[in-house]
Amino acid sequence: LGLADLKRSIRGCSVEESIDLFCLGPILGSELGALSHGQRQRVNLGRAWIQGGSVLLLDESLSALDGPSREHVAQLLKLRRQRNLGTVLVTHEAVPPELANQKYMVAPNA
Questions:
Q1: Residue 34: its pLDDT value, please?
Q2: How many CB atoms lie within 10 A of CB 49?
Q3: Three-state SS at 76
Q4: Is there a contact between 91 and 63 (Cβ–Cβ < 8 Å)?
Q5: 6 CB burial (10 A radius; 0-12, 13-18, 19+)
Q6: What is the pLDDT of residue 77?
Q7: N or C, which end of the chain is more exposed by having fewer CB within 10 Å?
Q8: How far apart are the C-alpha atoms of 46 and 97, rounded to whole Å?
């Protein structure tokens, strides 16, 4: 998909758009248990995008992705941010500054 398609798809999309957006075509029809962690993560992200909504809650959604997939999802999250659509991203990893308006760190005994 091109940038214009991504911008149109950023808040809710059809199943077909989600398949394209998250490169799910090659794994269609596969059993979920047979997929790698990264493939499962892309399926979960695709399902979330279909649901749409003004706020997405993503729990460790980038952790199992390979580099190119992580960059692709980061680009989608940047577009959500530019459109003032909320995303709560829970992660144990450093978040690039362009992905967040605000960051909170929770540490034990802090």
A1: 93
A2: 23
A3: helix
A4: yes
A5: middle
A6: 83
A7: C
A8: 24
Is-contact 62 73, C-beta < 8 A?
Answer: yes
Write out pLDDT tens, residues 58-86: 888 888 889 898 888 888 888 778 777 78
Give me the count of residues in the chain.
110
Tokens of 65: 């992705």
Which token pair is 84? 């003032």
Instruction: State the number of CA atoms in the 13 A half-sphere of 37 facing the CB.
Output: 8
How large is the C-alpha radius of gyration of the chain?
A: 14
Q: Which of 59, 63, 62, 64 is nearest to 78 (CA)?
A: 62
Buried b (16+ CB within 10 A) or exposed e, 59-92: eebbebbeeebbebbbebbebbeeeebebebeee
Residues 6+ apart with CB under 8 A from 103: 95
Place of tokens 């005994």: 109
